[in-house]
């Protein structure tokens, strides 16, 4: 019976990913994945101790046994204070909604946008979830835009309304992309995957500049801590919006799926993260004052205390070392021995991702990627980062582009670059540069 049910539609990028990984070396002990979308820097042990203490308390006081999260109202109040101060904008508790990770927030928001007749305009590259959720929920993607704002129209049928999606900084390039020149969208969705690990301008200043004057009645901001804190398995995120229809959709979904159960650990991760961002950005001598302000916020909300000042100092120092690893690997990537070079134009602002092109182009780029995978080198080329073959050909016509993870152990990172050099020893004939480039 089940064999007669047609397979659900799938985003092009997921189909491409499956084809690229088909036959790849499955041994995780011997393979290297140069562009894995996961922060490989170890999480802070001080953060681990705080979360362990918090979890123990929640188990003992019954918080984890309660369907209705007793801390949710207080957590929203504290988050509106902490995040509003960091972003230099007024936020109220009803503007805050906690989700189990950024991917859940993306899925739920796009489901609501599809339900309300919105089409999407997406950045390219982007996180696969945007395209996957657009397909799943039936939101047409009418355009993709690259880092300089150049727009590619897909030809999809126009919807009554448009949502412009921005990933700030972009999860693949690590840069702030110029928005396409088009009419004012009906809704704007800003996803923030990183705020730490910058090489250039301060990411907090970039974010504040972007949302200054933003009408949250027609926009939503998604913020997650999992990538910056090296905790991808601990799903923690927050949606900030004043759009009451979207907030009702989020609340209804939580009730239908989880009987109103909350995630107090995830909420506290986000509270700590919001206060930590302010500490990381400010001069060291302001740490005591900023930690006290954060402690006062959670105390007024009737919540368990945040960690002490010394924990903030140690976690900040830990993140400084993490960012130094990002920079070290970036310099290796840009070095004269590297087989890759970063794409000029998008300047990185935060996070561990880099967008790089092969110095020695290969004829049949994606078949070459498949060949590398079977030899133990897993690469993440353009097609797995959203979009369609037509969009990639239109917006990046000459590039043989790979996502590179700058958070990897430097020794393994160099080994990965050496393997690229080994598998790409010779330039291909000029007439073959664009063959087989956009689809596996």
Please count the beta strands (DSSP E, at least 2 residues each).
Answer: 14
- Helix coverage percent: 40-55%
Q: Sketch the major β-sheet.
A: 8 strands, mixed
Shape: globular
Oligomeric state of shown chains? single chain
Order of helices and strands: HEHHEHEHEEEEHEEHHHHEEHEEHEH
What count of helical segments does DSSP give? 13
Describe the fold and architecture:
There is one protein chain. This protein is an alpha/beta fold and 440 residues long. 40% of the residues lie in helices and 14% in strands. It is built from 13 helices and 14 strands. It has helices at residues 12-21, 45-60, 72-87, 102-115, 128-137, 203-211, 244-258, 264-281, 287-300, 309-333, 365-374, 389-395, 410-423, and strands spanning 32-33, 96-99, 118-123, 141-145, 151-153, 161-167, 187-192, 219-224, 237-241, 340-342, 353-358, 377-378, 380-381, 401-405. The strands form three sheets. An eight-stranded mixed beta sheet has the order 2-9-8-7-6-3-4-5, sandwiched between helices. The protein has a four-stranded antiparallel beta sheet with strand order 10-11-14-13, with helices on one face. The protein is globular, with a radius of gyration of 22 Å. It starts with 11 loop residues before the first helix and ends in a 17-residue tail after the last helix.
Give the SSE layout.
Layout: H1 12-21, E1 32-33, H2 45-60, H3 72-87, E2 96-99, H4 102-115, E3 118-123, H5 128-137, E4 141-145, E5 151-153, E6 161-167, E7 187-192, H6 203-211, E8 219-224, E9 237-241, H7 244-258, H8 264-281, H9 287-300, H10 309-333, E10 340-342, E11 353-358, H11 365-374, E12 377-378, E13 380-381, H12 389-395, E14 401-405, H13 410-423
Parallel strand pairs: 1-12, 3-4, 3-6, 6-7, 7-8
Antiparallel strand pairs: 2-9, 4-5, 8-9, 10-11, 11-14, 13-14
